[in-house]
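Tip: read the tokens left to right.
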């Protein structure tokens, strides 16, 4: 979908970014885009096991590799598709079956909190909100607004 938006010029630009990489770097980027782990992509691209254990410092720290990876990722995974996947993950459910003597007697659909948490962390990282604030010693204010009448303890604290 995105490649048609980019057109021929965008495709050529991505290909030229890949062409600027070494064969191993190119293999690593393509492996990552195929969904391989950092380690497996590095090993399949021909890197030594010691390099594969520390790809963030030894491979992805190079600006040309990061830029090629990001451009290809943007081309093959448009933001709209990424957002749809994240929204689906944030709404993940699981089905629980209850049985008696081998027969299913009830089916319950419940929120899958583990998957929802994973997608929440991913969404926060993508937004850049997973980083600690610059001043971690600064006090944080939390404001709670009540939809109905305030509880008695809140009114008492307000008078002090």
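Filled-in amino acids:
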């Amino acid at each position: 979908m995105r490649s048609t938006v980019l057109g021929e010029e965008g495709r050529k630009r991505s290909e030229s970014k890949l062409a600027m990489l070494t064969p191993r770097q190119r293999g690593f980027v393509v492996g990552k885009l195929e969904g391989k782990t950092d380690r497996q992509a590095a090993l399949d691209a021909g890197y030594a096991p010691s390099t594969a254990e520390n790809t963030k410092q030894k491979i992805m720290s190079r600006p040309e590799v990061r830029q090629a990876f990001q451009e290809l990722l943007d081309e093959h995974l448009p933001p709209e598709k990424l957002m749809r996947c994240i929204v689906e993950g944030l709404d993940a459910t699981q089905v629980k079956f209850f049985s008696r003597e081998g027969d299913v007697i009830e089916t319950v659909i419940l929120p899958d909190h583990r998957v929802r948490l994973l997608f929440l962390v991913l969404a926060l990282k993508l937004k850049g909100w997973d980083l600690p604030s610059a001043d971690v010693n600064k006090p944080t204010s939390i404001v709670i607004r009540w939809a109905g009448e305030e509880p008695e303890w809140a009114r008492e604290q307000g008078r002090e």
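The chain has a mean pLDDT of 81. Strands lie at 93-100, 103-111.
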